[in-house]
UniProtKB/TrEMBL annotation:
UniProt-listed InterPro entries: DUF58 (IPR002881)
Transmembrane segments annotated in the record for this chain: 12-38, 44-63
Keyword Disulfide bond: no
Domain of life where this protein originates: Bacteria
Protein name per the record: DUF58 domain-containing protein
Ranges of residues in domain DUF58: 209-357
Annotated keywords: Membrane, Transmembrane, Transmembrane helix
Pfam families cross-referenced by the UniProt entry: DUF58
Length: 448
């Protein structure tokens, strides 16, 4: 009895069309007091509405599964990217049905607009497509798919519930990794906003001996091979490989600042995943270190096929902390973990010159043993504020302060350069492209 009640009453909803029909019957009863000639018309109309009401119930409930729907999603969502979501719905009734489909998306999106209306012919299958853009890593819990079905009579709606709860993890951005793979192998990078870089000198990692052709560097002629073959033979070299490329991510409070929904930590994580992928395509070893007041996660540098997955699994759970980073601990850890000289890409943020100067002694010590690239962020909100014309004295004050902070960022770049430390000052939105571009430039110049 309880199951019967749940099936026929908890999922049955009255429509506006039924209320309009009942309202019309009420009006007829009221008019009957003034117009006796209406006779039994109000009773007949009410009876017709009730008969149609029960016919509509019979039509919609005589089939157990009149509608079937399912949600098709990726196994995991990509943070900061548009992720495609698809709902397939099929009509098993013998008539055209009108459907209203509501997908209960995770509460993190705060969306109430995933409400779709469509008409389905008998046995017709239709797909609903939409995108979701998560801005935080973690687990996202999808609710049920609610489908409200009307027959051609349209007096009631029957609700169907599908899927139930479905949990999807949100990983660091991986959808656009293919674009950065192209950057690693393409010689035409200007189309992606990447400048062409002239190689300086040549690598000393031997590749092969080949026949001399016009244009080859005569300094690479292999005289022993030439004597054996009886024709000019030259040595060819390739880029240095198996270099250690470590992404060091600051998890302190300076990385909590959000831009376009993503925190600076999330931008740094997405860039680290892309850089690791490109580094392994270049046959370098990719590794990871996270730092706050203590050393966090460590993934030793490697280029095995599962390395990128290991890095993403670690970064999937990382969160910002509330204390300042301890770079003295970072220096000790780097000296212990990274035995061979490599490229260390340190993602952090300095809001003032004094903040940089506090950490500068440790950065200088690290740069003695490794090629250190410090990546920090432009405040795009302050930049927009500095470009707006001031309308009053308060506006002049705000604009002056914004320009002061922007100028300090430029001074930080010069301060780091003065001590032989490479740096990138970048808007958060362009972080990944700028970091990958800098890595490719350093590879082209044989600095690593």
């Amino acid at each position: 009895m309880k199951k019967f009640f749940q099936q026929y009453y908890t999922n049955l909803f009255l429509t506006d069309r039924l209320f309009a029909a009942l309202g019309f019957c009420i009006v007829l009863f009221l008019l009957k007091f003034f117009f006796a000639w209406l006779g039994d018309i109000p009773e007949i109309a009410t009876g017709v509405v009730l008969v149609l009401f029960f016919i509509d119930i019979f039509i919609l409930y005589r089939v157990n599964q009149g509608i079937v729907a399912k949600r098709l999603t990726p196994k995991r969502l990509s943070n900061g990217d548009e992720n495609p979501i698809q709902i397939e719905i099929k009509n098993n009734y013998g008539f055209r049905a009108n459907a209203r489909v509501i997908d209960e998306v995770p509460f993190q999106f705060q969306l109430r607009d995933k409400d779709f209306k469509l008409s389905l012919k008998s046995t017709e299958l239709k797909s609903i497509h939409y995108n979701l853009r998560p801005t935080k890593r973690g687990e996202y819990d999808f609710g049920a798919i609610r489908a409200y079905i009307n027959s051609p009579l349209g007096l009631i709606s029957r609700r169907y519930n599908f899927e139930g709860n479905k949990v999807l993890p949100v990983y660091p951005s991986f959808i656009n990794l293919g674009q950065y793979e192209l950057m690693a192998i393409s010689h035409h990078l200007t189309a992606l906003g990447i400048k062409k870089i002239r190689k300086i000198g040549q690598s000393r990692e031997f590749d092969q001996i080949k026949n001399y052709v016009g244009g080859d560097d005569i300094r690479t002629i292999n005289w022993k091979a030439t004597a054996r073959k009886g024709g000019l033979m030259v040595n060819t070299y390739t880029d240095e490989r198996s270099q250690n490329i470590y992404c060091i991510i600051d998890k302190s409070r300076v990385m909590r600042m959000p831009f376009e929904g993503l925190s600076l930590l999330d931008y740094a994580i997405n860039a680290s995943v892309a850089l690791s992928k490109v580094a392994m395509l270049k046959e370098d070893k990719a590794g990871l270190i996270t730092i706050s007041e203590t050393i966090g996660s460590i993934v030793p540098a490697d280029r095995k096929s599962a390395q990128l997955g290991n890095i993403m699994n670690v970064l999937y759970k990382e969160k910002t902390r509330y204390l300042e980073s301890n770079l003295e601990v970072l220096y000790s850890s780097v000296r212990t973990i990274v035995k061979q000289r490599g490229l260390l890409v340190f993602f952090t943020n300095f809001e003032s010159l004094s903040a940089l100067q506090r950490q500068l002694p440790y950065l200088k010590r690290i740069s003695k043993y490794h090629l250190l690239l410090v990546v920090f962020f432009e405040n795009t909100e302050l930049k927009s504020l500095s470009m707006e014309p001031a309308k009053d004295v308060e506006g002049i004050y705000h604009k002056t302060i914004a320009e002061k902070f922007i100028y300090e960022k430029k001074l930080m770049v010069k301060e780091l350069s003065k001590h032989g430390i490479l740096s990138i000052l970048t808007p958060p939105q362009k972080l990944t492209v700028n970091v990958v571009n800098e890595y490719l430039a350093l590879k082209a110049q044989q600095r690593i």
